[in-house]
Amino acid sequence: MKSPLVVFDLDGTLVDTAPDLIASLNHTIASLDLAPVGYENLTHLVGHGAQAMIERACRLRGHPLESGDLPPLLQRFIAFYTDTMPGDSTPFPGIVNAMDALKAAGFRLAVCTNKLEKLAVTLIERLNLMHYFDVVTGGDTFTVRKPDAQHLIGTIERAGGILSRTVMVGDSANDILVAHNAGVPSIAVPFGYSDVGVETLGPSRVIAHYDELTPDFVRGLLTA
Question: Each residue of 75-117: pLDDT tens digit?
Fold first, then answer.
């Protein structure tokens, strides 16, 4: 029988990256002489990719972008974020212990994020977490991204898993939707970057802390 697989989102699920994403965003829009934005302005966009954050921040500051404006801003964001990561980004409480327990029980682990793959891999490497994961896929790994089912399905295939033995863990609508679209159970965490209560998104389960993410808990979802 195939080993069970747990697939994690990254921003707001595995790692609290908001402080560094906001810092990189404000560095980026400073080049347009725009005032900084705060986390409260962008809660639901943190974790949806730099492009969405840049566009939203510029609109908030009354500076909507033209079609050719974004590429240099995106490069400025990526350069600053890459140079400064991991910065203040830290794994959420309990996640390392939970992954240790899952790995010891024979589970495979993977990351499926809409963050650019290179940025995701760099962050995970600099946090010394890469050894936990069989594969990391980003928003540019495939031709589609979450909530398209093929992003998760492709991640599962690369990790050597199968749909019927997989659970998705995330903090946002994209994570719960991609799990639903792929036909796998989902676990939502409420401490991430969703602008609505995660219980309203229809996950299979909600956990308040990673102490709850035990091998037996995951196995229960796979046999439900």
Answer: 999 999 999 999 999 999 999 999 999 999 999 999 999 999 9
Dihedral sign computed on CA atoms, order 186, 97, 22, 116: negative
Other Cβ atoms less than 10 A from the Cβ of 84: the count is: 14
What phi and psi values does residue 45 have, to the nearest 5 degrees?
A: -100, -20
Which one of the listed residues 9, 11, 20, 175 is annotated catalytic?
9
Sign of CA dihedral 89, 5, 189, 154: positive
Contact at 8 Å (CB) between 205 and 221?
A: yes
148: amino acid identity, one letter: D
- Our answer to whether residue 9 is catalytic in this structure is yes
- The answer to pTM > 0.90 is yes
